[in-house]
Amino acid sequence: MTSTLARAWTPVCPLPRLEYDRGVAALVEGVQVAVFRTTEGLYALDNLDPASGANVLSRGIVGSRDGVPTVASPLHKQVYDLRTGDCLDRPGAGVSRHEVRCRDGLVEVRLRQEE
Fold this sequence. Notes:
Helices cover 0% and strands 50% of the residues.
């Protein structure tokens, strides 16, 4: 049985610093996280592109596929669902998704860890 453990919320940046449909990289508890702001909301995924092994997803192309908010890796162009971290091009592949919120104008991320 797998459960998800939540950690503490970590401040990343003021909300106005995040441009729409662009990502930023943040170091949260030693983990590189890609944070995105779209018109639908805020999203946070691991910054590590599993296809290349490089921390580049924050530099990916934000868009949508069939109404699903996505980011495409800037290196190999695999597309990831911003809501789940699932790779839409390679079933079974993906990146970890983290919780993200805006509280008092400050974007905060909380890592999710599988037990």
